[in-house]
Amino acid sequence: MKLMDARKETFDHIELFDAPAMFTNLRIDRSTVPDGLFCYDVRGTGDDPGGLTVIEPFVAVNHAGMIIGIEDYMLERGQAKYIATHINFLGDEITLDEFCAKHGIEISEPKKGVLESLRENREKVDKAPFASKRDNNTPER
Q1: How far is residue 97 from each of residues 14, 39, 61, 138, measured CA to CA in Å?
Q2: Phi/psi of residue 26, each to 5°?
Q3: Contact of 76 with 57, CB cutoff 8 Å
Q4: Can you tell me the distance from the alpha carbon of 49 to that of 119, in angstroms, rounded to the nearest whole number?
Q5: What confidence tens digit (pLDDT) does each residue in 38-85 have?
Q6: In the predicted model, what is the mean pLDDT of residues 29-38?
C-alpha cells in the first residue's frame, strides 16, 4: 500500500459538516499533514466500496478515500462518524498549500514519518564505509 505525500497532491475541495476540508481517494501519509489539520479515512460499504459513508481514524477494508480538514471529530480507533449526507463537494480542486492559505492555517514543517525515517537510515547504511567481513584478528572457520 503506497502512501502519498499530502503536500504534493491535489484534492477535491469539500465541506464536511459545513467546515472546510479536502478529499482524495488516495491513501495519504499522515506525517505529511501539517499540525492543525486532522486526517480521517473514509469507509464505503460492502455494496458500494467507493461510497463515502463514514469517517474513521483508520480504514483497511472498503477504504474509499481520506479527508483532511480543520475540524477534530475526536474519533478513537474503532469509532466512526456518519458523513454520507454531510459532505458537500465545492466543485474545485485545491492543493494543501492553497487550502492552508485560504483558511488561514500556518503550514508547519512536515513530521518525519516512519517510511521517511527508514529511507534515511537505509541511505546512511548504503553510504557507510564498512570494514571487510573478516578482519585480521578473526580466525577462519
Answers
A1: 15, 16, 30, 57
A2: -85, 170
A3: yes
A4: 32
A5: 999 999 887 877 788 899 988 888 889 999 999 998 888 888 999 999
A6: 90
